[in-house]
Structures
1.
Amino acid sequence: KRIQGHVNIPIKPTCLAAHAIPSEYKNSRKVYIEKICQELLPQVAQENLADFVDVFCEKGFFTPEETFKILKSAKDLGFQTKIHANQLGHSGGIYAGVKLGAISVDHLEFLNEEEINFLSQSETIATTLPIAAWFLKLPFTPARKIIKAGIPLAIATDFNPGSAPSGSMLFAIALACTSMRLEPVEAFCAATWNGAYAMGLGGEVGHLSPGALANFLVFKDCKDLHEIPYRFPAFIKPDIYIQGEKMNFQV
């Protein structure tokens, strides 16, 4: 939340209280879940600290039933919802997310035809995090099947010290092309416009059109779109513009 006062790009804070059970609640997980629903989330809402609430729905973390309970409480308080789903297996998070109208389900390293079909009948966005899959040596999200099913696909970095220690969107795009078999235009659409919609910002950023913020990159040393993921981020230094003003840092 504090970051919003220091940068001039849209920031969407997310409450991740339901990412793991704290050690002191190891033998009383129901108490912790009730604490999230009855105490923590109402306080976060009252202090306007977050826009999203996210639950890590996975074996060993939170069950689909617990996920549904927490996100239902969040939704009743006016939060938008997201779910960490199917990173380590078929967790049931997709079903909980779609039923609650989650704006996105994120990770999706494990995805079967039934889950893809269920997701295709919703407005929930499928977000892939290729850097996490690469770093943890997990299967890559079956992005081609997702796109074929007509599901909007977004790409994000999952930048964190435990499973994705890189905030480079250019690296994420390169992995999406080389390891997930996306065409560059598909990868860039997923990383920009669809990524913006996965943050509830589709009308504001992620595309160059009248009324959108003038946030963009200029690739002076690349002749076309295909060259950007091919050359990898270490060899590409685009100019960065935020609201039309050139910045003095690199991605």
2.
Amino acid sequence: RVLVEASIEAVRERNAAHPDADFALEPVNPVRIVFAFSGGRDSTALLEILSRIRNAAGQSRIADLTVVHVHHGLSCNADAWVEHVQSFCKARGLTLEVVRVYVNPRAPEGVEAAARQARYRALLRIARERRADVIMTAHHQDDRIETFLIQWLRGAGPEGLAAMSPVRSFEMAGSEGAGIALVRPWLDVSGEEIERFARKARLTWVEDESNSDTRFLRNLIRTEMLPHLDAARPGWRKAAARSVGLVA
């Protein structure tokens, strides 16, 4: 929760002057957040934290929280995932937008990249409509390390090897994201820590079967490579995350 509140604080400082005069409240400038909610473990855990902050009595950090679930149409379980996220949000009084997109399974850039582009286009559209300051995702430390390794295998330079930043301006080819921050508050939090919190909070989530498909490079790294490093050098992930941070 502390990391989530700190990320919101960073955006409040970043966007101290909002174009709407009646939105700039003193002594704080609350933010409008669009949250990417897949229904998986990580986004479920982060949304649980966000909902607790947003629903706390007297809170002044969050002016608006819109939850967005993107239905990619790639899984036979996609409709069931929609039912799950609807139930989760209804129980917490959260505003949910379900956006259906088309992803070409034969896209030249690969289905993963095509799905990611479609997802971020949908998030950006909702963020504009809601006049949001923030698009927030649940990427964590393990995701950052995996991205670093993917970029390293591609021969990327320092910018690519920096992998992900906790707070940065939203950038997307062919679109305008001016004034919107892409926020990932859990880049220093491991998947194990998220798992412990989710179990303790008795949360339920969906499992995307494509995450075990090792035809995708990220899944191959996660399931085939990283466990060998865990066995060979316990604790290496924290050290690796520090290196990624230093590059960034």
3.
Amino acid sequence: RVRAAMPHAAITTDLIVGFPGETEEDFAATLDVVRQARFSGAFTFQYSKRPGTPAAELDGQLSKAVVQERYLRLVALQEQIALEENRNQIGRTVELLVATGEGRKDSRTARMSGRARDGRLVHFVPGEQQVRPGDVVTTVVTDAAPHHLIADGTVITHRRTRAGDAYAAGQRPSGQLNLGMPGIGQPAATAEPLGCTR
């Protein structure tokens, strides 16, 4: 239904392999869902017994070897699908919110990183433009890997933003998000809704 409404949607998920009682048939059904859904990315984890949790007391605990083998099969399938889906992006023009701390910014490639509107990570070459984290650029995808896209061509457009200005001025977010509710110890009258500034 999502793809019918948004054909180019990038859908991600979280998956845990080896929960107590998981049968080979259960795992095969998980692989089938992954094949059908064609997730653009999946945060995949191996179940591990946590003392004090209800799951730790369940019957059907699987051996580490079984969990590891299933995990490797799932990761291999998901990476194959993600690479195929990312290769479908080659040649597309993407708009990116430039980020910091996402990698691929070495001296050899001179790449910066950003997130496309669908959440995909894109490593791009800013060229001669003074692109800053927080700015918005458009560029064309030239290559793909399972976990990111590459845009080694020219930046088509570059829009400077207030977020980029703040980054350039050395201002960093406080880490506090206020949705209009008073903070702890803060009077209600001084609470600022999300997006408001003094």
4.
Amino acid sequence: MFATTNHHQLRNYMLFKDLSEDALIELASHCQHQTLNVGETLFHQNDQSDALYLLEEGQIHIVRQYPDGEDVILATEMPYYAIGDLSMLVGGGRTAAVVAVSDCTLIKIDRDAFFEICQQVPDVASQVILYLAKRLRDLNLKVREYAISNVAARVASVVLLLSGGDTGEIKSKVRVSRIARAIATDADTVERILRQWQDAGYILFDRGQMQILDLDMIRHIAG
């Protein structure tokens, strides 16, 4: 289902909020309104990045599928979120799938139309460059924060969360790769830390089964 997009709607999105009135009007003329029912997939991981979507109403999950078949929800996004902007600009395949958590209304801008607008309206291209620069700056800050933070403390926090009590018993299977993704580090680092804890007698860990032997020490490491 498609409908006309009011150019004033576009100013709700960070990508376009500083554009001139004329630029917004030109951009709106290339927009399409689209609906997505709860449970429907907007696009799949590795699909061609042929459009930018702007979430107007509803909620969506961004879902990443890993080689072991596990699906991980990376984020839940609300209205005024730009969906697939970087993938659309760079081209190539989508880095994750997008699934509707509720009935959604979206604004769609085709990739070819977007680049045509950037050539015709310099304000749009300038705004995109500024937007990407800010995102890159924020990403650099996050990467530095992760790099200097205590990885062992983050691993211990996840282990305590998995234990879910004061007994130190973990009934579910522990996946090193999942812990690594949860704390934004690599699996080798997590494996090395768990091996050190086992050698020190803090835990028992074998074939995905884990038991905390020294709960106080793991709590101390977690801070």
